Amino acid sequence: MDKDLTYKIKELKKEKNARILAHYYQPPEIQDLADSVGDSYYLSEIARDCPEDVIVFCGVKFMGESAKILSPDKKILMPSLDAGCFMADTINEEGVKKLKQEHPDALVVCYINSTANVKAYCDVSVTSASAIKILNNISTKKIVFLPDKNLGEYIAEQFPEKEFIFWDGCCKYHNDISVYEILELKKKYSDAEVLVHPECKKEIRELGDYVGSTSGIISYANDSNNKNFIVATEEGILHELNKNNPDKNFFIPGKNVLCPDMKKTTLENLYSTLLNMENEVDVEESIREKALNSLLNMHKLAE
Ligand code: 13P
Ligand code: SF4
Question: Is the beta carbon of 173 within 6 A of some atom in ligand 2?
């Protein structure tokens, strides 16, 4: 049945001139089917540059919205339009406006994990893979960073000469990873390297042999001679890690680290989205124009 559905999706994709993009946290069968799999930065570039008329974005809402902001003439579809992001929803338009009022002299930097409505009030977006490079290219001393306080603090540690003001947001799933869970795994696999996504708390980052984005974690593990790894991020990443490194072992701390919104994509809803060309991402034009600035600045400053 799944093989049949996979075949039908591939046929429909050709017929509709569509490209399927998937984030590393998507279910394995979706990553296997996608034309492009990657981190938030890579996928934003593909969404901007790919020649197809239709993008089916297997990810969460802010990713689909960013694709629409960058490529307004393309049809951007999502298998599940209600796949949100806990972190993005920690701040709304009023929140960012208030920060701007309180700090009129600051540059407002948002993590790409924010809604289009919020991006519309920000100067530049960043992803975890591009943030350090982008901040290196910004001379402004005072930075408002939103919505992820953990990522913000990680960036701030690299720029002690700058003043940072944070929004108190986080990713519930990364933030819940505990030191105890990592140390329990370390007891069993004392030689394991600890790979940490910067959405984790400081105390977890401090245990990391490597801290970086999903693509950074994957590159690090591919290049390392170690056999065992403790991976402090969403467990969807295991698919790519295991595919690239069949002889290495990857362990997720605790029982699981699972983002339910990332798991809302199924072969069934992907198929019906393509078949009916439904679940189109819509960003109101006046918002899109304002939000575009922050994403264009992201690509420009990350070069
Ligand atoms: P990256 O893949 O850019 O590291 O981002 C992780 C994430 O939180 C996606 O929701
Ligand atoms: Fe958002 Fe966290 Fe899910 Fe990423 S893992 S989409 S930051 S809720």
Answer: yes
